[in-house]
């Protein structure tokens, strides 16, 4: 006959209780699902899906907007993005920096006998019909219509008889003046254009 000590007895009881708990967990479907969910959760923590942004290559410079008098060339690039899985990280939100840049070109003076760039733009409307007829157009300069528009890059044209007016965005490279600054207008795709490359005068 084998004699058991109390210490051996309790060790045996603990082992049996452990085996019983394991058997119950294996037999219980809900417990198995929790264990599987835990594995899936750990897997998601290992691979996070984030959006990565980066700049594409710069496109070629555009042609100069003017043959003389200071036109503008521009160059664009696009912000690219991709969803991908990484070990760890977070979205970098967006590209930083500028998507478009500009340079002056053909800065030599135009012949004094030629038309101004604003005149050329207004004259381009001579071939278009308005209310079934053609009109001859000429420019009004910012000092003439400051009460109508404070934007130096608005092109304001009027008919030669002064009876009709129209206002559109001036083309890239159009000279402009704002207060004591002179510059050129750029960015034809914006409703409200902006003046850049400004220089202080007088």
UniProtKB/TrEMBL annotation:
Keyword terms, alphabetized: Secreted, Signal
Main location: secreted
Xref: InterPro entries: ADAMTS_ADAMTS-like (IPR050439), TSP1_rpt (IPR000884), TSP1_rpt_sf (IPR036383)
Compartments where located: Secreted
Keyword Secreted appears in the UniProt entry: yes
Domain of life: Eukaryota
GO cellular component, one term: extracellular region
Signal sequence extent: 1-25
Pfam family for this entry, one: TSP_1
Protein name per UniProt: ADAMTS-like protein 2
Gene source species: Liparis tanakae (Tanaka's snailfish)
Lineage: Eukaryota, Metazoa, Chordata, Craniata, Vertebrata
């Amino acid at each position: 006959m084998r004699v058991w000590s109390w210490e051996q007895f309790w060790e045996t009881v603990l082992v049996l209780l452990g085996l019983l708990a394991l058997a119950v967990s294996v037999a219980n479907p809900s417990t198995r699902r929790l264990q599987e969910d835990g594995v899936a959760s750990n897997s998601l923590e290992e691979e996070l899906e984030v959006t990565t942004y980066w700049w594409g290559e710069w496109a070629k410079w555009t042609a100069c907007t003017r043959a003389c008098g200071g036109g503008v060339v521009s160059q664009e690039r696009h912000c690219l993005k991709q969803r991908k899985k990484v070990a760890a990280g977070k979205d970098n939100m967006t590209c930083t920096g500028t998507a478009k840049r500009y340079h002056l070109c053909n800065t030599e003076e135009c012949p004094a006998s030629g038309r101004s760039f604003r005149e050329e733009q207004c004259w381009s409307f001579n071939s278009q019909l308005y209310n079934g007829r053609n009109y001859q157009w000429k420019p009004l300069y910012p000092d003439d219509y400051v009460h109508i528009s404070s934007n130096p890059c608005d092109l304001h044209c009027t008919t030669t008889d002064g009876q009709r007016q129209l206002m559109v965005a001036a083309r890239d490279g159009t000279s402009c003046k704002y207060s004591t600054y002179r510059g050129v207008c750029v960015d034809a795709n914006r409703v409200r254009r902006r003046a850049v490359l400004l220089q202080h005068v007088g």
